[in-house]
From TrEMBL, chains A, B:
EC numbers on record: 1.13.12.3
InterPro entries cross-referenced by the UniProt entry: Amino_oxidase, FAD/NAD-bd_sf, Flavin_monoamine_oxidase
Principal EC category: oxidoreductase
Similarity comment text for this entry: Belongs to the tryptophan 2-monooxygenase family.
SUPFAM superfamilies in the record: FAD-linked reductases, C-terminal domain, FAD/NAD(P)-binding domain
Annotated transmembrane regions: none
Keywords: Auxin biosynthesis
Keyword NADP: no
Record's catalysed reaction(s): L-tryptophan + O2 = indole-3-acetamide + CO2 + H2O
Keyword ATP-binding appears in the UniProt entry: no
Domain of life: Bacteria
UniProt domain Amine oxidase: residue ranges: 56-511
Name under which the protein is recorded: Tryptophan 2-monooxygenase
């Protein structure tokens, strides 16, 4: 019996769920650490959990533990749910360490996601909560063949269209390998039959001509674009374009940006919540109304054999110290902050907390009077890459053909991010406009207002995300994640998916399953 | 002065439009046959135009000629505007040649676009009308790394994820070329310096390891996916997957499908109108309310020195023949039908009309009880390719995580399309379900209803689109497009963009500009 006959039979007799089980066992389904919505139940009578932080990890933990019957309370520093899941919209304010307060002046419907902004199709945990909580999703355009690759030192500083570098690099690679094949240089490693197939495939894949050359003509222009597009009537014969030479493509180093959209986390289909990433946090916040105490700054976490006691300052009652207690604690406070708090955990966990540095990152959102990238340059969504300090310009994946628009005008890491974080916010915005205008000269005329978040000055994270190295992970990761007495940590920092919300979700689910097992007397 | 300084100066002093002019002349803007909304004005007093067909070409012509001051009437065979721009929704009926009538039973909000379904970013004409008429656009997901490539004869008939074939083909190509480079086989054609750059780029681009080998590990899995995805907590270390061997990838011929999304017309960003492609035709129909006479079947077109006279049958008054007249005629009737009508044009145009065959195509829409492709297989939008007769399965790019869904269950060309067209519609649907279930076994359980359009049985087109060959174009294209007395043809068939709505738009604009020049006494 063939595999598909078997599957058909299973489907016909036992239904879709059984079929899916069978598909999994036959290797048609990918294995995911997200094993579906947890089915925790039977919390011990009166069992209570204190969750620290109302970011994604904290709210997933609180949501599921409540479902399982635990008494749950969440303490959150900010005045809103979500943590790094956050959209800045017109009317919002943000005060960073150092005292700068920015007031967002975006028009209605426009936003910047200072933190996460993309959801990959395989991040099944966070996607399942979007579904469960009714957060509508729309495609996020990552790669745009008509956006630019730019280097200040290549092609006289003139931005190249992604499609040109993409097609030309591939075309030249295909031509070189076709040549090697035809010259018999692959005879040792590839059978004659496969060489024939390889040549045929390279011609198609690389847009080579009949002689296996990548050159000006219909084949290459049908990838890289035309000097004049095809149209209708008597004046519309297309005009082919001329490929760049291999040495110019290689020398430009613009090929560095060709892999971005191939990476597992950036492959299509990517999503964004309609209205901003913050919609997820807001939806969790609604579910946990009354459970989350906002404006609560945790100052110490202490546990003993019977429970966990947390002291915090209520932003509405300055100076006074409050206490919250529970039998268990799920702590999602970023390590950068947690490491500075009194906390009685094992030396191994304390070492782990202290070991992991936080990455620097800056995002700048810029509002423009008109969507010139669409109107003038036919760029709808996607990203431009540049070696200027702004690194990226990302165009909105929604609201096409609307009036005003907000660009992600800089998305920076490393050294440049530190430099920008050190500037006053308005200076970051000014610089982003200045650099961006070298790619889009329309910036000067069309810019209206901007907002800039430097994550190392964010009082609720002191950095962007836990920057694990392989060595650190080897030494500290398991110690960080292990249930320590009555405390378990969760968050992107307690995952193999740093910086991703999916890390927060899967980490929280893993943590509460172990906590639940221990709370119900099982072995962890 | 550097290019960008010049541009900056122009922008600062003369504004965005001048800047764009300058960008064009510096080669930063692509040339398009769409030169913006036409600015025809000054129609001669009382000048009139009869437009045949209320598809995109006819409606663009009518819309613009009215703006220019012409008296315009449109005759349309169907009871709706749009022609091939068309969405079938629940409650719609469609009767094809041969007498079969199908009643669409899709749930609210679901649809099939039997004709065009995608809008490329560089189709500036049709996009500009979407903007002008307020037709909202959303991204159309063409390539989906998690959809399947399938061959009945490869990998035991088991569908492969796009990301696997995509990454493995590229990885092996990169490894082979890296080897050739390292063995000095490129010394004749590539400088030493460029060979170094090439190696560096191949490693990154092809996901090779440190020894330039494409093999199981973090690099390759970060493209092709993992056996077990990364997650959070203590049980979530990712497990790398094992690449396919080169010979298996080549032998499967699945590499044929890797170029589809690279082709100029299928590159990101692609769009679809929110609610179905038919929204464009419907919007034009609203603009031309009172101008279009529906249910009018043209039976003859005759011109003399003073004008054009068209006879037609009104579907509401069977048997009676009506006449409509005007000074000029823009005829957008497909050549497959036009060639069968009495029409007094030059022999050259008549030959052209007779010369071009129409392509066969079939689309099948299938409604399912649940979106199992999303729930079970994490496929959101995009397409699966197969060598089964159905050729493609396309997943909706919108309504993610909703309840029911409509798949494009077959999108066929050539021989298979002829065979399916010959079947009764319900048989086409049955076959599409049967073939599709070899890729998605859930079909059997979840299928609800379907609808199938075979374009050669469409009474208003008798085929899908004008299938020009290079030879035909050489001999006939200009003769087809030339103004013939008082008649000019327009439509995708009179363009270098057959089958695309942009061909219809640019063809119509080109045609009416020439018509207007002649009508106002200019030279054509």
């Amino acid at each position: 019996m063939r595999r598909r006959d078997l599957l058909r039979m299973i489907g016909a007799t036992a239904g879709g769920a059984a079929m899916y089980q069978a598909m999994s066992s036959l290797g048609l389904a990918t294995e995911s650490p997200f094993r579906g919505t947890p089915t925790l139940h039977g919390a011990p009578r009166g069992a209570s959990v204190l969750v620290l932080g109302a970011g994604i990890a904290g709210m997933v933990a609180a949501y599921e533990l409540r479902q399982a019957g635990y008494q749950v309370q969440v303490l959150e520093y900010n005045r809103r749910p979500g943590g790094r899941n956050w959209s800045l919209r017109g009317g919002d304010s943000f005060t960073e360490l150092g005292g700068f307060t920015q007031h967002c002046r975006f028009d209605d419907g426009l936003y910047l996601n200072p933190g996460p902004w993309r959801l990959p199709y395989h991040h099944r945990g966070i996607l399942s909560y979007c579904k469960k909580l009714g957060v509508a999703l729309e495609p996020f355009v990552q790669v745009n063949y008509n956006a630019y690759l730019h280097s200040a030192d290549a092609f006289g500083g003139k931005p190249q269209r992604y499609r040109e570098i993409h097609a030309d690099y591939r075309g030249h690679v295909a031509e070189l390998l076709a040549k090697s094949t035809q010259q018999g240089q692959l005879d040792q490693s590839v059978s004659k039959e496969d060489q024939e197939r390889l040549l045929e495939s390279l011609r198609q894949w690389g847009a080579l001509d009949k002689r296996f050359v990548y050159t000006r003509g219909e084949a290459s222009s049908n990838r890289r674009g035309y000097d004049r597009d095809a149209g209708g009537g008597l004046t519309a014969k297309p005009l082919p374009s001329t490929p760049l030479q291999l040495k110019d493509v290689l020398g430009s180093r613009l090929w560095q940006h060709l892999v971005d959209s191939e990476i597992y986390e950036f492959q299509t289909t990517l999503f964004q919540p309609v209205g901003g990433m913050g919609r997820i946090g807001e939806a969790f916040g609604r579910e946990l109304k009354g459970v989350i105490r906002y404006g609560a700054k945790v100052t110490a976490i202490l546990q003993d054999e019977r429970g966990v006691s947390v002291t915090y300052e209520d932003a509405d009652i300055p100076g006074a110290t409050q206490t919250a207690s529970a039998q268990w604690c799920v702590c999602t406070i970023p390590l950068s902050i947690l490491g500075q708090l009194p906390l009685n955990v094992s030396p191994a966990m304390a070492d782990a907390i202290a070991a992991v540095p936080y990455a620097a990152s800056v995002k700048v959102g810029l509002q423009f009077k008109r969507r010139f990238w669409e109107e003038d340059e036919q760029i709808y969504g996607g990203m431009t890459y540049t070696d200027l300090p702004i690194a990226n310009i990302s165009y909105p994946s929604t609201g096409f053909h609307g009036g005003k628009g907000v660009l992600l005008g800089a998305y920076m890491w490393g050294k440049d991010a530190y430099e920008f974080t050190a500037m006053a916010p308005e200076e970051r915005v000014r610089k982003a406009v200045e650099y961006g205008s070298r790619i889009h000269p329309q910036y000067r005329e069309e810019f209206e207002n901007g907002i800039a978040v430097g994550w190392h000055r964010s009082p609720f994270t002191l950095g962007c995300f836990a920057a694990w190295s392989d060595d650190m992970r080897e030494r500290h990761y398991d110690n960080l994640c292990r249930l320590d007495g009555r405390i378990v940590l969760a968050g992107e920092h307690a995952s193999y998916l740093p910086a991703w919300q999916e890390g927060a979700v899967t980490s929280a689910l893993d943590a509460i399953e172990r906590l639940h097992r221990r709370a119900t007397g099982g072995i962890v």
